[in-house]
Amino acid sequence: SGGHSALILAEDKTAQRQFMDKVDAAAVYSNASTRFTDGNQFGMGAELAISTDKLHHRGPLGLEQLVTNKWYIFGNGQTRP
To answer: What is the model's pLDDT at position 1?
Structure first.
């Protein structure tokens, strides 16, 4: 994974969970298109840029800058044009 998003297509729930827990990506998908990786789709509004670094903040650090997010998205074959 390049750190942005990763996908598994599987019916086995154990395989899905193992993959999603182990892969190093900001958004991990099970049976859904990675095209949903979008700030607006995640409820953040329009995105200005995409970062694949874990800690990209420069300067003084507060708690918010030390926390990384990993999004788990489960689907049933959904796609996005």
So the answer is: 55
Sign, CA dihedral 7-31-69-39, equals: positive
For residue 30, what are its two tokens?
């099970």
In 3D space, the residue among 31, 5, 4 whose CA is nearest the CA of residue 17 turns out to be 31
Contact 37, 27 (CB under 8 A): yes
3-state secondary structure the chain: CCCCEEEECCCCHHHHHHHHHHCCCCEEEEEECHHHCCCCCCCCCCCCCCCCCCCCCCCCCCHHHHCCCCEEEEEEEECCC
Q: What is the pLDDT of residues 18-60, one digit of tens each?
A: 999 999 888 899 999 988 887 777 776 666 666 666 666 555 5
